[in-house]
Sequence to fold (288 residues):
Amino acid sequence: MIHSMTAFAREQSQGPWGTLTCEMRSINHRYLEVSLHLSEALRPFEGMIREKIRKMVKRGKIECSLRYRPGVDSDTAFVVNAQLVNQLVTACEEIRGSLKNPAPIPASDILRFPGVLETKETDQGTLQSEVMSLVEHTLKDLLAAREREGAELNKLFLERMDRMQTEMENVRTRLPQVMKDAQERLLKRFTDAKIELDPARVEQEMVMFAQKIDIAEEIERTETHIAEVRRVLKNGGAAGRRLDFLLQELNREANTMGSKSTDTIITHAAVEMKVLIEQVREQVQNIE
Fold:
């Protein structure tokens, strides 16, 4: 199954240690590019998170946002540094003794002093385990969304391949009549011009003209490329670049058929082929 590179996933994990929220966005990109936005407390895990993403995703631009809010239980609540507060109060009393009309010192001023309020940090082992578990679950959701969209694109591609194959069958059926009409027109020109040519020379000219307008090889190559696209879609995996290359080859054959064509039906088929190819190429850019 092929996978799209466009998806979004969001997961949240909660416990006594706090709350973790992970959001991932994925868009198309030529290679794999990972962009992380982490809460300060999660910075030590940046390398592990990048490695986890690289193991599970092959291609695309991944933007991962991971936010952490500590819990409010006894292990993570704010605590007052009593020793520092006592020292501050003693210092304030000494200063008050030197002032004539000292104003009372509000408790909020003491609380704002650096180090008065402390937060007990969550155990790093527990936090790391929760972070990596959440990242993995979010990645699985992201990949599942990419797979679902890839399945829809797969249907679209196969439908376009069916239409291209139909156009080639119509051209193949039409080709003998086109060759016959072209030869008759060439003979009529010779006749109307009352040109007397050696039969061998006429036959040679007819063969050269037939070779010039013959598109049998282009039809065969086009059908081969269509079959290869079907095979790549069936095998799945990271198929985006290979599909893009095959569509370039299909477009080249369609251009050649159009330039060689002397028949309106075949010209129309070549134009229709290019339209179908372009429709697929627009979507292939989103394939992993």
Observations:
- The helical segments are 46-56, 82-97, 107-111, 124-192, 199-213, 216-235, 240-260, 264-284.
- The chain has a mean pLDDT of 84.
- The CA atoms of residues 177 and 263 lie 10 Å apart.
